[in-house]
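haha ok so turns out i had the wrong file open the whole time. this is the CORRECT one, sorry everyone. sequence first:
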Amino acid sequence: MELIFLGTSSGTPTKTRSLSALALRRHKTKSWLLVDCGEGTQHRLLQAPLSLHWLQAVCITHLHGDHCYGLPGLLASAGLNGRTAPLTIVGPAGLQAWIEQTAAISQLQLNFELRFADVNSLISRPLALEGFDITATALSHRVPSFAYGFTETHLAGRLDTHRLLADGVPAGPLWGKLHRGETVTLNDGRVLAGRDYQLSPPRPRKVVIGGDNDNPGLLAQAVQGADVLVHEATYTLEVANKVGPEPQHSSAAAVAQFAEQAGLPNLVLTHFSPRYRDAGSGLTVASLEREARAHYSGRLWMAEDLAMYRLSREGVLSRSQE
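then structure:
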């Protein structure tokens, strides 16, 4: 699985960070999912290995502008680029009306169907898409905000290649037939059943991606069995205390403490306040990272625009150099 960050800034963009948007896809597949779509997302896509033709669904965590103002433009560009396949859009109440009203006022005409789904329906029953089941968890913010859980589905069983080689079955088309569960006859007359060479499918991997939220503990159930949590860390604790509780955002310390208690193996922090510069003196992203590392012992990443993070089959998240 791959996570491609298209925007990692909170509220307003900076010279190096666009607004919230995150792509998720299975490794070596064309289809992908988009979580949030801040202003400028489609411009970031021009620099990413992603095509709007293969976008399966857009999942909006909440209706603050830095998480959704890029959606009408993205839809328009998809239409102008010739998309015809239906597109699923998941989000809070009001999202469908806003998109439809914007389309009417701006005379936006699309040659593809928009299939809207209320995020609340995903709390009790997963939404099944190609390759993933998607669930939702309600969070705590100034407007209704949600986290999405993405769990792999339809994982194929693996061939017991060691047994095949031990039994003298030559690699080639016969392996493909046995992988499909077929029965084959070898040149020496032996009859082999595919079921005898099947290993159990790999464990489904799970990624949880949160929207704005001042209470990470609300994700306690959602992250059970998860490999990765992506969560906002808008402030350091010191700045959060100065700002006060009204913005309803999380500090790096709060998220890190939760991830440590939950036993999460991989944590990615994002949605940094523009006051945190990439480098230099004063408030920097390194300040957020130092605070998080003081409370979390797992693999920690500070999201960067256009960075790709790959989750291995063994559940190890690393930054890809592709």
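DSSP finds ten helices and 19 strands in the chain.
again sry for the mixup
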